[in-house]
């Protein structure tokens, strides 16, 4: 069954389409949104190897002229050097400001292709076709696009809303187990900050049975994010809640060179770390961290926060995008389903490390 959520922002309204098998209908949807011919598809070698040929053929059969720019899978492709290469290949393929770019892949591809679309020729329209769980329930919605610097994650970026998001839960069947679990960390995040009922439902399921509920989970998470983005598109207040676990999660990812931990694994570790610190300060309900840890373990996610050099951790935290010159906004939860923003002075960061 086709479900459609509309995201309404100040400058644009766009649909999120959610339906099993919809990837094979993407060309029809795109034809309703775009009357031109040229389409640049940005994908990684893994996703392109599975879906690329058929996706391009469907576009050709609908009268489009697609071409593909392929990058290596993984976080290291979210770099300025890869971004430059993608932009060059898109231009060499004939992309103009009146054409369309499609991000076909997971969160890295969505961020990379979206940032290219936002900046190339001062803006080319783009569509998100997310193929990982983490992208379907989180990064493809809301218009945050970015690349990384060696000094930190997502430090060069923009807010640039897509023309549409096309989500097919069936494509998750090709995910490796680790990357399915990776996405479940973000699902757990949504439950922690906004939906106690979802959290309790996840506690009753497991890694196998949860896959049968993907339509419900994707709709629930996308609805939460849609509602938050409509209130706070530019991440000045309410939208910061979506970063629960991310502040320290990004530290973990960067510290280990974006190779030891996936993004979701880092977020999970960050959620447990922040909640434990909050319990020690009597600002989080007792037992909350144990419940979060138990749920992460249920979905095969790591829970042992790694040892890191405190000075390096503090230096990374000071670059966090949620910070000002003297303060940093940390995302906490009072209890399951109740997230809030806690502003602290940067010189008090050590109590959270």
From TrEMBL:
The reaction(s) annotated as catalysed by this protein in its Swiss-Prot or TrEMBL entry are: 7-phospho-2-dehydro-3-deoxy-D-arabino-heptonate = 3-dehydroquinate + phosphate
Alphabetically ordered keywords of this record: Amino-acid biosynthesis, Aromatic amino acid biosynthesis, Cobalt, Cytoplasm, Lyase, Metal-binding, NAD, Nucleotide-binding, Zinc
The Enzyme Commission number assigned here is 4.2.3.4
Task: Report whether ATP-binding shows up as a keyword of the record.
Answer: no
Give, as in the UniProt entry, the pathway in which the protein acts: Metabolic intermediate biosynthesis; chorismate biosynthesis; chorismate from D-erythrose 4-phosphate and phosphoenolpyruvate: step 2/7
> Per the database record, which ranges form the 3-dehydroquinate synthase N-terminal domain?
69-180
Q: Which SUPFAM superfamilies match?
A: Dehydroquinate synthase-like (SSF56796)
Pull one GO CC term from this UniProt entry: cytoplasm
Q: Which Gene3D superfamilies match?
A: 3.40.50.1970, Dehydroquinate synthase-like - alpha domain
Chief localization class?
Answer: cytoplasm
Tell me the Pfam families matching this sequence.
Answer: DHQ_synthase, DHQS_C
Residues that hold Zn(2+) according to the record? 186, 246, 263
> EC top class, in one word?
lyase
Coiled-coil-forming residues are none
A Gene Ontology biological process term: chorismate biosynthetic process
**InterPro entries linked:** Dehydroquinate_synthase, DHQ_synth_AroB, DHQ_synth_fam, DHQS/DOIS_N, DHQS_C
Listed NCBIfam families: aroB (TIGR01357)
Query: What does the UniProt function comment say about this protein?
Result: Catalyzes the conversion of 3-deoxy-D-arabino-heptulosonate 7-phosphate (DAHP) to dehydroquinate (DHQ).
Q: Which PANTHER family match?
A: 3-DEHYDROQUINATE SYNTHASE, 3-DEHYDROQUINATE SYNTHASE, CHLOROPLASTIC
What is the protein named?
A: 3-dehydroquinate synthase
**Gene source species:** Peptoclostridium litorale DSM 5388
């Amino acid at each position: 069954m086709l479900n459609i959520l509309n995201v309404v922002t100040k400058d644009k309204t766009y649909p999120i389409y959610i339906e099993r098998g919809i990837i094979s209908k993407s060309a029809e949807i795109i034809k309703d949104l775009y009357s031109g011919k040229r389409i640049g598809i940005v994908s990684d070698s893994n996703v392109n190897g599975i879906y690329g040929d058929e996706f391009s053929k469907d576009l050709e059969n609908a009268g489009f002229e697609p071409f593909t720019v392929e990058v290596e899978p993984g976080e290291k492709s979210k770099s300025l050097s890869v971004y430059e290469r993608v932009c060059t290949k898109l231009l060499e393929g004939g992309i103009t400001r009146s054409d369309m770019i499609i991000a076909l892949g997971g969160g890295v591809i969505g961020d990379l292709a979206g940032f290219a679309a936002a900046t190339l020729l001062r803006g080319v329209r783009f569509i998100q076709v997310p193929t990982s769980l983490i992208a379907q329930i989180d990064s493809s919605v809301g218009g945050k696009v970015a690349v990384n610097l060696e000094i930190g994650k997502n430090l060069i970026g923009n807010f640039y809303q897509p023309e549409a998001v096309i989500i097919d839960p069936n494509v998750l069947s090709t995910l490796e187990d680790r990357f399915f679990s990776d996405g479940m960390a973000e699902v757990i995040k949504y439950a922690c900050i906004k939906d106690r009922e979802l959290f309790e439902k996840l506690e009753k399921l497991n890694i196998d049975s949860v896959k049968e509920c993907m339509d419900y989970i994707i709709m629930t998470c996308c609805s939460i994010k849609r509602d938050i983005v409509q209130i706070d598109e530019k991440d000045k207040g309410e939208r910061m809640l979506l970063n629960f676990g991310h502040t320290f999660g990004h530290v973990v990812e960067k510290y280990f060179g974006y190779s030891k931990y996936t993004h979701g694994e880092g977020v999970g570790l960050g959620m447990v770390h922040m909640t434990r610190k909050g319990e020690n300060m009597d600002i989080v309900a007792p037992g909350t961290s144990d419940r979060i840890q138990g749920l992460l373990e249920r979905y095969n996610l790591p829970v042992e926060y790694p040892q890191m050099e405190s000075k390096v951790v503090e230096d990374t935290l000071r670059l966090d995008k949620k910070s000002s010159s003297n303060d940093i906004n940390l995302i906490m939860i009072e209890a399951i389903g109740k997230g809030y923003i806690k502003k602290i002075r940067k010189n008090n960061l050590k109590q959270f490390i």
